[in-house]
Amino acid sequence: MANFAIVGATGLVGTKMIERLGESKLKVDNIYLMASSRSAGRVLEFRGRDVVVEELNEHSFDKDIDYAIFSAGGTTSLKFAPIAEEHGAIVIDNSSAWRMEEDIDLIVPECNYPKLKRRIIANPNCSTIQSVVPLKPLIDKYGVKRISYTTYQAVSGSGKGGIDDLINGRDGQAPKKYPHPIYNNVLPHIDVFLDNGYTKEEMKMIEETKKILNLGDEVSITATCARVPVLNSHSVEINITLERSAEVEDIRNILSKAPGVIVVDDPQNNIYPMAIEATGRDEVFVGRIRRDISQANSFHIWCVADNIRKGAASNAVQIAEMLEENR
Ligand code: A2P
């Protein structure tokens, strides 16, 4: 039995966390749902019972809470995660605020296990999570020299505002979340631009991949991230150069046995991973597995996952499941 808090419970990811925790085998004794003062008093449902949303404040963690799962933005995490930690909870934080801190674990349960130097565990960036799940077993077997990512990211990754911009854009309404219309458009721009010309999203993918998979600076990684007019589920084209030679069949075999991965790869029959089929699932779907004819030991993999589930809520709940299983 464990007590849970979900901070940011009224948001897109928070709502999915409640749903995913409800589906989990975890025994939840008490659940506390927290959000801003705007949502205090709202009633949400968890496993068929009504739970009243509380306003998050300095005293929210005075109660006995085992796991506090945060998805309320970086500023809220920076302020409240240490308070929850101090009161004995294990924080699982979906924001980017803590991810690259040296003493903070950055965890994808299929790939790594927390050392728990601190009781704050970071949930990685959505596109990173779905990419490292299939990469891990390939890199374990063949080593890696280089990874190149190109993403096609759904608007749900920007929260409710992103979804509104796509839906309202169909009627010609001006965007509020994005700097340009996303309806009938593609934006090569996710998060802010940095001095090196990359966006912060692109640098998150590069740095987080290295941290999760424990890769040194001898491995080169690059990324281009684009927002596409898709409601949900991100697609990532992964181009990987392995250290040791492999055949396409080897890659397919390893991926077909990899935890959390489903191979969908029958292009002759128009069968490959697609966003509309990944939505609602926790697995990462891979296909179009083929040799990159432009360079040695290199392969293309098309990788699709539900960014709100595996890319955020489900990964966070899976971290709690993993810790409870090993308690
Ligand atoms: P609220 O709904 O009360 O604003 P999304 O990413 O979908 O916009 O969701 C963000 C989540 O984070 C919501 O649950 C939101 O609550 C919550 N949130 C945002 N700012 C704060 C804050 N300062 N304190 C507590 N919760 C916050």
Automatic annotation (TrEMBL):
Catalyzes the NADPH-dependent formation of L-aspartate-semialdehyde (L-ASA) by the reductive dephosphorylation of L-aspartyl-4-phosphate. This is Aspartate-semialdehyde dehydrogenase. NADP(+) binds at T10, G11, L12, V13, R38, S39, S156, G157, N307. Keywords: Amino-acid biosynthesis, Diaminopimelate biosynthesis, Lysine biosynthesis, Methionine biosynthesis, NADP, Oxidoreductase, Threonine biosynthesis. The keyword Amino-acid biosynthesis applies. GO terms for biological process: 'de novo' L-methionine biosynthetic process; diaminopimelate biosynthetic process; isoleucine biosynthetic process; lysine biosynthetic process via diaminopimelate; threonine biosynthetic process. It comes from the Bacteria. It comes from Peptostreptococcus stomatis DSM 17678. It holds the Pfam family Semialdhyde_dhC. The keyword Glycoprotein does not apply. Its EC number is 1.2.1.11. Belongs to the aspartate-semialdehyde dehydrogenase family. InterPro entries: Asp_semialdehyde_DH (IPR012080), Asp_semialdehyde_DH_beta (IPR005986), NAD(P)-bd_dom_sf (IPR036291), Semialdehyde_DH_NAD-bd (IPR000534), Semialdhyde_DH_dimer_dom (IPR012280). PANTHER family: ASPARTATE-SEMIALDEHYDE DEHYDROGENASE, DEHYDROGENASE, PUTATIVE-RELATED. SMART domains: Semialdhyde_dh (SM00859). One of its GO terms (molecular function) is NADP binding. Substrate binds at Q153, R227. The active site is at C126 (acyl-thioester intermediate), H234 (proton acceptor). Phosphate binds at R99. Pathway: Amino-acid biosynthesis; L-threonine biosynthesis; L-threonine from L-aspartate: step 2/5; Amino-acid biosynthesis; L-lysine biosynthesis via DAP pathway; (S)-tetrahydrodipicolinate from L-aspartate: step 2/4; Amino-acid biosynthesis; L-methionine biosynthesis via de novo pathway; L-homoserine from L-aspartate: step 2/3. It catalyses: L-aspartate 4-semialdehyde + phosphate + NADP(+) = 4-phospho-L-aspartate + NADPH + H(+). Homodimer. The lineage of its organism: Bacteria, Bacillati, Bacillota, Clostridia, Peptostreptococcales.
